[in-house]
Protein backbone atom coordinates (compact mmCIF):
# COMPACT_ATOMS: atom_id res chain seq x y z
CA UNK A 1 0.00 0.00 0.00
CA UNK A 2 1.40 3.37 -1.01
CA UNK A 3 0.51 5.09 2.27
CA UNK A 4 1.62 5.37 5.89
CA UNK A 5 -0.23 2.20 6.91
CA UNK A 6 1.52 0.23 4.19
CA UNK A 7 4.84 0.95 5.90
CA UNK A 8 3.66 0.77 9.52
CA UNK A 9 2.28 -2.79 9.14
CA UNK A 10 5.55 -4.42 7.92
CA UNK A 11 7.54 -2.19 10.29
CA UNK A 12 5.44 -3.36 13.25
CA UNK A 13 5.86 -6.99 12.10
CA UNK A 14 9.66 -6.70 12.03
CA UNK A 15 10.00 -4.67 15.24
CA UNK A 16 7.73 -7.01 17.22
CA UNK A 17 9.68 -10.13 16.31
CA UNK A 18 13.14 -8.61 16.57
CA UNK A 19 12.46 -7.17 20.04
CA UNK A 20 11.16 -10.58 21.18
CA UNK A 21 14.24 -12.26 19.70
CA UNK A 22 16.54 -9.75 21.43
CA UNK A 23 15.20 -10.51 24.90
CA UNK A 24 14.97 -14.25 24.20
CA UNK A 25 18.46 -14.72 22.82
CA UNK A 26 20.20 -12.87 25.66
CA UNK A 27 18.07 -14.77 28.16
CA UNK A 28 19.07 -18.11 26.63
CA UNK A 29 22.74 -17.12 26.38
CA UNK A 30 23.07 -16.05 30.01
CA UNK A 31 21.00 -18.97 31.31
CA UNK A 32 23.30 -21.40 29.49
CA UNK A 33 26.29 -19.56 30.88
CA UNK A 34 24.88 -19.70 34.41
CA UNK A 35 24.11 -23.42 34.10
CA UNK A 36 27.62 -24.10 32.84
CA UNK A 37 29.12 -22.19 35.75
CA UNK A 38 26.83 -24.09 38.14
CA UNK A 39 28.08 -27.42 36.88
CA UNK A 40 31.63 -26.11 37.11
CA UNK A 41 31.09 -25.28 40.77
CA UNK A 42 30.07 -28.90 41.24
CA UNK A 43 33.52 -30.05 40.20
CA UNK A 44 33.48 -32.69 42.91
CA UNK A 45 31.06 -34.56 40.68
CA UNK A 46 33.59 -34.47 37.86
CA UNK A 47 31.82 -31.73 35.89
CA UNK A 48 33.92 -29.48 33.69
CA UNK A 49 33.56 -25.74 33.22
CA UNK A 50 32.15 -24.64 29.88
CA UNK A 51 33.51 -21.69 27.97
CA UNK A 52 30.81 -19.02 27.82
CA UNK A 53 28.01 -21.50 27.28
CA UNK A 54 29.57 -22.57 24.02
CA UNK A 55 30.10 -26.20 24.91
CA UNK A 56 33.91 -26.20 24.80
CA UNK A 57 35.63 -27.35 27.99
CA UNK A 58 38.69 -26.13 29.80
CA UNK A 59 41.67 -28.30 30.69
CA UNK A 60 40.39 -31.18 28.60
CA UNK A 61 37.78 -32.16 31.15
CA UNK A 62 35.12 -34.48 29.82
CA UNK A 63 31.63 -33.10 30.15
CA UNK A 64 28.76 -32.57 27.74
CA UNK A 65 28.34 -29.01 29.02
CA UNK A 66 25.20 -26.92 28.81
CA UNK A 67 25.49 -25.92 25.19
CA UNK A 68 24.14 -22.63 23.87
CA UNK A 69 22.55 -23.17 20.45
CA UNK A 70 20.91 -20.71 18.07
CA UNK A 71 17.37 -21.39 16.87
CA UNK A 72 15.26 -19.52 14.33
CA UNK A 73 12.43 -19.10 16.86
CA UNK A 74 12.15 -19.01 20.64
CA UNK A 75 9.55 -20.69 22.86
CA UNK A 76 7.05 -18.63 24.83
CA UNK A 77 6.49 -20.05 28.32
CA UNK A 78 2.89 -18.78 28.34
CA UNK A 79 2.08 -20.74 25.17
CA UNK A 80 4.49 -23.67 25.45
CA UNK A 81 2.00 -26.01 23.76
CA UNK A 82 2.06 -24.05 20.48
CA UNK A 83 4.50 -22.37 18.13
CA UNK A 84 3.43 -18.80 18.89
CA UNK A 85 5.97 -17.13 16.60
CA UNK A 86 4.84 -19.12 13.60
CA UNK A 87 1.16 -18.42 14.33
CA UNK A 88 1.84 -14.69 14.67
CA UNK A 89 3.83 -14.65 11.43
CA UNK A 90 0.95 -16.29 9.60
CA UNK A 91 -1.58 -13.90 11.18
CA UNK A 92 0.39 -10.72 10.44
CA UNK A 93 1.18 -11.68 6.87
CA UNK A 94 -2.41 -12.67 6.09
CA UNK A 95 -3.53 -9.25 7.37
CA UNK A 96 -0.93 -7.66 5.10
CA UNK A 97 -1.97 -9.74 2.09
CA UNK A 98 -5.66 -8.90 2.57
CA UNK A 99 -4.85 -5.20 2.96
CA UNK A 100 -2.70 -5.11 -0.17
CA UNK A 101 -5.30 -7.06 -2.15
CA UNK A 102 -8.26 -4.88 -1.14
CA UNK A 103 -6.46 -1.58 -1.78
CA UNK A 104 -5.10 -2.79 -5.12
CA UNK A 105 -8.48 -2.52 -6.84
CA UNK A 106 -9.58 0.48 -8.86
CA UNK A 107 -12.82 0.56 -10.81
CA UNK A 108 -13.48 -3.08 -9.97
CA UNK A 109 -10.12 -4.22 -11.39
CA UNK A 110 -6.86 -5.11 -9.68
CA UNK A 111 -4.49 -2.58 -11.25
CA UNK A 112 -1.82 -1.84 -8.62
CA UNK A 113 1.17 -4.06 -9.43
CA UNK A 114 3.10 -2.52 -6.53
CA UNK A 115 0.54 -4.09 -4.22
CA UNK A 116 1.00 -7.38 -6.07
CA UNK A 117 4.72 -7.24 -5.29
CA UNK A 118 3.96 -6.65 -1.62
CA UNK A 119 1.59 -9.63 -1.61
CA UNK A 120 4.39 -11.84 -2.92
CA UNK A 121 6.72 -10.56 -0.18
CA UNK A 122 4.12 -11.24 2.52
CA UNK A 123 3.51 -14.72 1.12
CA UNK A 124 7.11 -15.82 1.63
CA UNK A 125 7.14 -14.58 5.22
CA UNK A 126 3.86 -16.45 5.71
CA UNK A 127 5.57 -19.56 4.31
CA UNK A 128 8.31 -19.10 6.89
CA UNK A 129 5.66 -19.02 9.61
CA UNK A 130 4.12 -22.23 8.28
CA UNK A 131 7.51 -23.97 8.35
CA UNK A 132 8.07 -22.76 11.92
CA UNK A 133 4.82 -24.42 12.96
CA UNK A 134 5.58 -27.64 11.06
CA UNK A 135 9.08 -27.79 12.59
CA UNK A 136 7.62 -27.31 16.07
CA UNK A 137 5.30 -30.29 15.67
CA UNK A 138 7.97 -32.52 14.14
CA UNK A 139 6.55 -32.74 10.61
CA UNK A 140 8.79 -34.74 8.25
CA UNK A 141 10.97 -32.29 6.31
CA UNK A 142 14.63 -31.62 5.49
CA UNK A 143 16.69 -30.05 8.29
CA UNK A 144 16.78 -26.29 8.96
CA UNK A 145 13.70 -25.50 6.84
CA UNK A 146 12.79 -22.71 9.27
CA UNK A 147 16.12 -21.04 8.43
CA UNK A 148 15.86 -21.85 4.73
CA UNK A 149 12.44 -20.24 4.38
CA UNK A 150 13.57 -17.21 6.42
CA UNK A 151 16.53 -16.81 4.04
CA UNK A 152 14.17 -17.15 1.09
CA UNK A 153 11.75 -14.56 2.50
CA UNK A 154 14.45 -11.92 2.96
CA UNK A 155 15.99 -12.75 -0.43
CA UNK A 156 12.59 -12.26 -2.12
CA UNK A 157 12.17 -8.99 -0.22
CA UNK A 158 15.57 -7.84 -1.51
CA UNK A 159 14.76 -8.84 -5.10
CA UNK A 160 11.42 -7.04 -4.97
CA UNK A 161 12.94 -3.85 -3.58
CA UNK A 162 15.70 -3.92 -6.19
CA UNK A 163 13.03 -3.84 -8.93
CA UNK A 164 10.67 -1.59 -6.98
CA UNK A 165 12.41 1.72 -7.67
CA UNK A 166 11.28 2.67 -11.18
CA UNK A 167 9.58 6.05 -11.35
CA UNK A 168 10.21 6.93 -7.69
CA UNK A 169 11.69 10.16 -6.41
CA UNK A 170 15.40 10.31 -5.59
CA UNK A 171 14.72 10.29 -1.83
CA UNK A 172 12.30 7.37 -2.13
CA UNK A 173 14.90 5.38 -4.08
CA UNK A 174 17.55 6.24 -1.50
CA UNK A 175 15.44 5.00 1.42
CA UNK A 176 14.35 1.79 -0.28
CA UNK A 177 17.95 1.01 -1.26
CA UNK A 178 18.81 1.02 2.45
CA UNK A 179 16.08 -1.57 3.01
CA UNK A 180 17.56 -3.57 0.12
CA UNK A 181 21.00 -3.64 1.79
CA UNK A 182 19.50 -4.66 5.13
CA UNK A 183 17.49 -7.49 3.54
CA UNK A 184 20.58 -8.96 1.85
CA UNK A 185 22.44 -8.59 5.14
CA UNK A 186 19.73 -10.69 6.82
CA UNK A 187 20.20 -13.42 4.21
CA UNK A 188 23.95 -13.56 4.86
CA UNK A 189 23.47 -13.50 8.64
CA UNK A 190 20.92 -16.33 8.52
CA UNK A 191 23.25 -18.50 6.45
CA UNK A 192 26.09 -17.82 8.90
CA UNK A 193 23.78 -18.63 11.80
CA UNK A 194 22.99 -22.07 10.35
CA UNK A 195 26.69 -22.84 10.02
CA UNK A 196 27.81 -21.39 13.38
CA UNK A 197 24.99 -22.73 15.55
CA UNK A 198 26.88 -22.36 18.82
CA UNK A 199 27.91 -18.74 18.27
CA UNK A 200 25.59 -15.95 19.36
CA UNK A 201 27.24 -13.40 17.03
CA UNK A 202 25.50 -14.22 13.70
CA UNK A 203 22.16 -14.46 15.50
CA UNK A 204 22.68 -11.02 17.03
CA UNK A 205 23.61 -9.62 13.61
CA UNK A 206 20.42 -11.07 12.14
CA UNK A 207 18.30 -9.60 14.93
CA UNK A 208 20.03 -6.22 14.64
CA UNK A 209 19.36 -6.02 10.89
CA UNK A 210 15.73 -7.08 11.25
CA UNK A 211 15.09 -4.50 13.98
CA UNK A 212 16.80 -1.80 11.92
CA UNK A 213 14.59 -2.74 8.97
CA UNK A 214 11.51 -2.38 11.14
CA UNK A 215 12.38 1.06 12.49
CA UNK A 216 13.41 2.21 9.01
CA UNK A 217 10.05 1.11 7.57
CA UNK A 218 8.41 3.43 10.10
CA UNK A 219 10.76 6.26 9.14
CA UNK A 220 10.06 5.83 5.42
CA UNK A 221 6.33 5.98 6.07
CA UNK A 222 6.60 9.18 8.10
CA UNK A 223 8.86 10.83 5.51
CA UNK A 224 6.86 9.91 2.41
CA UNK A 225 3.41 10.25 3.98
CA UNK A 226 3.75 12.77 6.86
CA UNK A 227 0.67 12.57 9.12
CA UNK A 228 -1.06 15.15 11.31
CA UNK A 229 -0.15 18.11 9.15
CA UNK A 230 3.61 17.55 9.43
CA UNK A 231 5.76 19.42 6.93
CA UNK A 232 6.41 17.49 3.72
CA UNK A 233 9.93 16.67 2.59
CA UNK A 234 11.35 17.90 -0.72
CA UNK A 235 12.18 14.51 -2.17
CA UNK A 236 14.54 15.87 -4.82
CA UNK A 237 16.49 18.19 -2.55
CA UNK A 238 20.08 17.01 -2.03
CA UNK A 239 20.46 18.56 1.42
CA UNK A 240 17.31 16.82 2.67
CA UNK A 241 18.56 13.55 1.23
CA UNK A 242 21.73 14.03 3.31
CA UNK A 243 19.49 14.43 6.37
CA UNK A 244 17.86 11.10 5.45
CA UNK A 245 21.30 9.45 5.45
CA UNK A 246 22.11 10.93 8.86
CA UNK A 247 18.73 9.77 10.16
CA UNK A 248 19.45 6.22 9.01
CA UNK A 249 22.79 6.29 10.86
CA UNK A 250 21.03 7.42 14.05
CA UNK A 251 18.56 4.55 13.64
CA UNK A 252 21.54 2.17 13.43
CA UNK A 253 23.06 3.68 16.59
CA UNK A 254 19.82 3.60 18.60
CA UNK A 255 19.09 -0.01 17.65
CA UNK A 256 22.61 -0.97 18.77
CA UNK A 257 22.18 0.88 22.08
CA UNK A 258 18.81 -0.79 22.61
CA UNK A 259 20.37 -4.23 22.19
CA UNK A 260 23.16 -3.31 24.62
CA UNK A 261 20.53 -2.24 27.15
CA UNK A 262 18.64 -5.53 26.77
CA UNK A 263 21.93 -7.41 27.15
CA UNK A 264 22.60 -5.67 30.46
CA UNK A 265 19.02 -6.21 31.70
CA UNK A 266 19.06 -9.93 30.95
CA UNK A 267 22.53 -10.34 32.44
CA UNK A 268 21.44 -8.70 35.70
CA UNK A 269 18.22 -10.68 35.74
CA UNK A 270 19.80 -14.11 35.20
CA UNK A 271 22.70 -13.61 37.59
CA UNK A 272 20.22 -13.33 40.48
CA UNK A 273 18.56 -16.67 39.71
CA UNK A 274 19.20 -19.75 41.81
CA UNK A 275 20.46 -22.92 40.07
CA UNK A 276 16.97 -24.39 40.45
CA UNK A 277 15.40 -21.41 38.64
CA UNK A 278 18.04 -21.61 35.93
CA UNK A 279 17.21 -25.26 35.36
CA UNK A 280 13.47 -24.70 35.14
CA UNK A 281 13.89 -21.82 32.68
CA UNK A 282 16.33 -23.77 30.54
CA UNK A 283 14.13 -26.83 30.08
CA UNK A 284 11.67 -25.39 27.51
CA UNK A 285 14.50 -23.61 25.69
CA UNK A 286 16.57 -26.78 25.53
CA UNK A 287 13.54 -28.67 24.24
CA UNK A 288 13.22 -26.11 21.44
CA UNK A 289 16.90 -26.51 20.58
CA UNK A 290 16.64 -30.29 20.54
CA UNK A 291 13.77 -30.17 18.07
CA UNK A 292 15.88 -27.99 15.80
CA UNK A 293 19.24 -29.80 15.93
CA UNK A 294 19.27 -32.80 18.19
CA UNK A 295 22.82 -33.84 17.37
CA UNK A 296 24.17 -30.44 18.46
CA UNK A 297 22.01 -29.40 21.36
CA UNK A 298 21.55 -32.59 23.35
CA UNK A 299 21.74 -31.88 27.04
CA UNK A 300 22.94 -34.42 29.59
CA UNK A 301 19.77 -35.10 31.64
CA UNK A 302 21.70 -36.65 34.53
CA UNK A 303 23.94 -33.62 34.60
CA UNK A 304 21.01 -31.19 34.86
CA UNK A 305 19.42 -33.39 37.54
CA UNK A 306 22.61 -33.13 39.57
CA UNK A 307 22.50 -29.34 39.25
CA UNK A 308 18.99 -29.12 40.62
CA UNK A 309 19.65 -31.72 43.34
CA UNK A 310 22.73 -29.82 44.49
CA UNK A 311 20.77 -26.58 44.66
CA UNK A 312 17.96 -28.23 46.62
CA UNK A 313 20.47 -29.65 49.10
CA UNK A 314 21.86 -26.15 49.58
CA UNK A 315 18.35 -24.87 50.30
CA UNK A 316 17.97 -27.52 52.99
Automatic annotation (TrEMBL):
InterPro entries with a match to the protein in the record: DUF716 (IPR006904), TMEM45 (IPR042127)
Species of origin: Petrolisthes manimaculis
Domain of life: Eukaryota
One cellular component term from this protein's GO annotations in UniProt: membrane
Family classification: Belongs to the TMEM45 family.
Ranges that cross the membrane: 6-26, 87-105, 117-135, 147-166, 178-196, 208-228, 240-262
Membrane topology, record value: Multi-pass membrane protein
Keywords: Membrane, Transmembrane, Transmembrane helix
Entry's localization field: Membrane
Descriptive protein name: Transmembrane protein 45B
